[in-house]
Each structure stands twice: as structure tokens, then as C-alpha cells.
Amino acid sequence: MNKEKSLNVTPTTSLSPSGVNACRDWYASAAGQATLARVQSIVSSMSTDIFGYYALEMGVLAGRCSFLQESRIASQFSLGSVPGEAVSMVGTPEHLPFALHNLDLVIATHALDCATHPHQVLREIERVLVPEGHCILIAFNPVSFRGLGQLRHLFKPAARHCEFYSTLRVREWLSVLGFEVCETVSAGFCPVLSGNYLFKHARWLDRLGSKFRLMTGNVYIIHAQKKVSNMTPLLPSRKVKPVLRPGMVVNPGAGRLVRKESNNVTQDS
Fold first, then answer.
1. Which residues contact 232 (CB under 8 A, 6 or more apart)?
2. Rounded CA gap, 181 and 183, in Å?
3. What does the DSSP assignment read for the chain?
4. Where is the Methyltransferase type domain (predicted)?
5. How far apart are CA 209 and CA 187, in angstroms?
6. Where in the chain are the domains?
């Protein structure tokens, strides 16, 4: 159940084209390709034991790579934002073309980073998921080398192609919508700069971050499950005994008679 008020967004909202291109350019680098392979492995392990009928991939990487190769869900769809891509359908993450409670798994790649209204994206995911359904969110980490790159636009927010949100913030949004976070993993600890020299000499950062499960990777993956509370009325813990027994006769004037007798005694004395 949604506990936040509606943002009243319009159906014209969509992913930022400049943000989509910036994300895809980042993944085209050597460090981005290594991070993508690691992310695919993590998402595959998260989704292997998820059963159901329908699964959806959406976001920046929809149609370019598949995260559902190891999934046991037979019917799989991909939602793209640009016409002409190899996707099942074209739409916006803020207004998913699915009915209420129909999908068992939703994988969103950087849909929060590039969306104008990230809250609405999460609301739509909550709406289309069945009770106990799963969602896997992939996003850039502001506490990383990738996040440090955003500092150059510190005094020019309009120049940012994407907006990065911390894991604590996203987990709080999910909690408000009734999700339970199952797992949070970070990947891609190497800096991404022009050329591959720095990447080749910084691979030890990937090994270190993966070994100690650090949360400073360029990308984080959040696996959450939609929870629906069942309200069950609570019965009283003990049986309350009635004050009056059956057959008991109550004399409403007994108190007045006692007071009258007490007055007579006072006068005689």
C-alpha cells in the first residue's frame, strides 16, 4: 500500500536522453564492461530462485544486455525508452503499460538515476508487482569514483546528466512503499577515465572491494521484495466474566432506604 501522496506527474515524463547516453558511454569503457559483467553475475544469483509467470527488464540497459538468462520465469519482457531498439515495448518507467499486480519480477537499470520523478518509478514498480513479488534496482553510487565525477557540476545542477541517490535513501523509499530489502551489493571499484592504463593497474581495487563486500563501488544492486500485511483481528487474551449472575434481582432503591434509615437514627439520638 502506498503511504505517500501522489506526485501528480504527467504521462510525458521519461528518461533523460542525455542521461541515457552518458550511462551507456560509461558502460562502453573497459572498466564499465568489467562492472557490467560483475553486475550480471550478481543479478543472476539474486534472480535464480525467483519463481513466477512474468518478468520485466527496463531502464538504460534494457534491450542491450539481458539479466534474466538464468531466470526460471518463462515470460520475459523488456521496456525501452527509445523507438527502434531491440525491446518488447517502448514506454516510460513512470507509467508502466501493465495492469495492477501482474509481474513477479522487475529489474530496473538506472531508471532512478535518469528519471525526473524517481518516486513515481518506484510507485509504478510497486503497483505492477504481485504480492511477495521482487524488484532488483541497479543504480550509480554517489559514494564512489563515479560519484566523485559529479562534483564538477556541484554549482551547476542543470549540467548533470543523471542524479545519483544513496543506498540509504533508496532503501528508505522502498520501506515507505512496503518493500523489504533482501540484499544490497556493490560492484565496480575501479575509476573510469580515458584510456585503459589506469584501469589495468587498479584491478586490485575490484578484488579488494569484492572480498570485503565494500559499499564504495561505482554501481550498487538492491534486491527488495514487496510485502503485503494481512490485518488479523486480535481476540481478547482472557474471557471477561459478567458482573451479574443470571437470575440476580437488582433493587434500585436500596441505597435510598439505607440513607433514610440513617437519618432516622440521627433524629432519635
1. none
2. 6
3. ---SPP----TT----HHHHHHHHHHHHSHHHHHHHHHHHHHHHHHHTT---SEEEEEETTTTTS-S-TT---SEEEEEESSTTSSSSEE-BTTB-S--SS-EEEEEEESHHHH-S-HHHHHHHHHHHEEEEEEEEEEEE-SSSHHHHGGGGGTT-GGG-S-----HHHHHHHHHHTTEEEEEEEEE--S---SSSHHHHTTHHHHHHHHHHT-S-SSEEEEEEEE------PPPPSSPPPPSSPTT----TTHHHHHHHHHHHHHHH-
4. 89-137
5. 8
6. 17-226
Of the candidate CATH numbers 3.30.930.10, 3.30.300.30, 3.40.50.150, 3.40.980.10, the domain formed by 17-226 belongs to: 3.40.50.150
pLDDT tens figures, 6-51: 333 334 446 778 888 889 988 998 888 999 999 999 999 999 999 9
pTM of the model: 0.77
Cα 215 to Cα 188: distance, rounded to the nearest angstrom: 10
Burial of 219 (0-12, 13-18, 19+ CB in 10 A): buried
Within 10 A of 153 (CB to CB), how many other CB atoms are there?
A: 12
Question: Who wins on pLDDT, 126 or 212?
Answer: 126
Higher pLDDT, 116 or 153: 116
pLDDT tens digit sequence for 4-16: 333 333 344 467 7
